[in-house]
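[job 0417] fold request received: Thioredoxin domain-containing protein
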Amino acid sequence: MPPRTNTPTKSSRPSTSPAPSRPPSASPARKAASPKPSAKKAAAKADEATPAAAAIEPDAEVAAPAATVPETSNGNGHNPVSAEAPSSGPQWALPLCILATIIAIVVGAAVWPDELQLEPRKVTKIGPDAFELDKLELKASKDGYTGSNLVVFTYNASLKPDCPACTALHSVTVSTEFKREVANWRHKKVLRMGKILCNNAKQNTDLCERFSAVVGAGDDFSPVNAIEPTVFVEGSRQMKPAADGYAGNVLVLFTQESSAKAPPCEPCQKLDALITDPTFERREAAWRKRGLARIAKVYCNKQIDLCERFGVTGSSGTEPGLPHVVWFKGGEEQGMYEGGHSSLGDFDKWVFTHSMPHVLWFEHGKEAVAYDGNTSSVADFHKWVVAKEDVAERAEL
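[job 0417] inference complete; emitting structure tokens
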């Protein structure tokens, strides 16, 4: 019988490359540690079953070098550690993260003021066309706004006259902090702000004079008192410091008291009738209260020496003639009063223009009134607005 030969079995696929040489056989211990094909298939299925976890967790090779795990066998040649699928983390982690983000946004919106999220807004420049023609009111807003308005009446710092107080207020209103407040008030529809430069144009000057009486409006009375020589530094034309620290405008009226012994002075009588009128006394009280001006008088037929010190003899027809008005500021003589003294409006205009700036409050459909807050800082305006909001809310309850 011919010897039997082993015929190699042909592969169903044609080989495209020579068969690689077989590596040396692994040791029995190595074979025992390698997982069986069934374990590898199970690991592959486990990997396919958790695609979401693979998307959330960072790649092991990128995040950190993999730790060396000792290869151990469970007795069946299967390493349970190497066959486990990557851990996907707690299933509640993602919803908790989303919830925390929502809470942070809500709490942040409640804690952070609206002005920090709004674009800062400048105080708007306005002109005469923003006001009613024959009223001390603003025209109705075109967008239907019915809240309050504050209008600053001030001077352009680059033009005459000099106004240090105007410059100080300007530095407050152009600050980023104030602009954020303006944007916030506008957003909440509680306040809008504008300003008018009273020395920019003739029409602006006329408008400011029209509103000059507003700063003198009030219900209190303050009679114009006659002053004594002790108010002045002895032998000098300088006034002593006021007991209450006031260092603003003072107008001293050198006039003559009506009496049978005094020579006739018709202008003095007219001025005396004006300053003793209750309307003027209310003006003086308001000016005094707001620190704008104070009015005093000297009877030259009684204080002859004091009048002569200022060059006023007290005789009718002399120069300077009676009545004679001298302007003081901070106790120092500033010169002769250049305004008229035949009407209340003359004094209104003078006080208004010599005590700039002014802030007037316009409520919807109402005449302007003097702003009753401070103007030295952003906090002063904020405090005033908060107080007005609180009053409005209480009125609605």
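[job 0417] notes: The mean pLDDT is 78. Residues 93-111 form the longest helix (19 residues).
[job 0417] exit 0
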